[in-house]
Design goal:
221 residues, alpha/beta, four-stranded parallel sheet, two-stranded antiparallel ribbon
């Protein structure tokens, strides 16, 4: 198995593909997909990069690993395919957008529309075995996605990183906060949101405000 990734990312990530850890990771993933049901579909593993080229990234949202049930994961964190019931975290994301920006709750949970506007929807782990959350963690994906975050931090300016929950907040140390904006809050999962750590963070209006400050178009959430 090899990484099929948009060519705009190659100057920053090509070295990773040649490293031993990444070759071992691809061998592991290939075997997992051969012997088990895994998600997202193999051709969508690098969707986040292919839908959002390096030069177009404005905002980075970091998730943990893909949804692990059939027909859900499509390679974009928090996103599900059209027609699929919205998972609880996504429901709470849309509720916060509704309250923050007075936008009607959407029918589709497919966040491809976000990715096409320059939002990199990056899971720290890009694959998972069916019905086994975290099953592909600590196999090398985190080394790769940490490199992605570092390369973005080094080579771009005025990005907005949205770090939701304890796991994502750990990534803050990879980001140069003199060049970029980091917004943090609790995770949108019901456990966190119902304790008051998610609702009211206004990350969506804040992101648009920050984009406008550097003469970028606001996002259509």
């Amino acid at each position: 198995m090899t990484a099929h990734i948009h060519q705009s990312w190659l100057p920053y990530l090509q070295e990773e593909f040649n490293k031993t850890y990444f070759k071992n990771l691809m061998a592991f993933v290939s075997e997992e997909y051969r012997t088990h049901d895994c998600f997202p579909p193999k051709n969508e593993i690098f969707n986040a990069f292919n839908v959002c080229p390096f030069n177009e990234v404005k905002v980075v949202i970091i998730g943990q690993d893909p949804y692990h049930d059939f027909n859900q994961a499509n390679g974009l964190c928090f996103s599900v395919n059209d027609g699929i019931k919205h998972p609880p975290s996504l429901v709470n994301i849309f509720k916060e957008i509704e309250a923050d920006l007075n936008i009607p709750y959407p029918k589709s949970g497919n966040l491809m529309r976000w990715a096409k506007q320059g939002i990199l929807l990056l899971n720290a782990t890009l694959t998972v075995r069916a019905h086994k959350p975290s099953s592909h963690q600590k196999k090398g994906w985190e080394i790769f996605t940490n490199t992605v975050i570092k390369e973005l931090s080094i080579n771009k300016t005025n990005l907005i990183f949205l770090l939701w929950g304890g796991y994502a907040k750990q990534k803050a140390k990879l980001i140069d906060t003199n060049k970029h904006h980091v917004l943090t809050s609790g995770h949108p999962s019901p456990l966190s949101a119902n304790r008051g750590y998610w609702f009211g963070n206004k990350h969506f209006s804040k992101t648009n405000y920050l984009l406008e400050q550097v003469s970028q178009l606001p996002l259509i959430w």
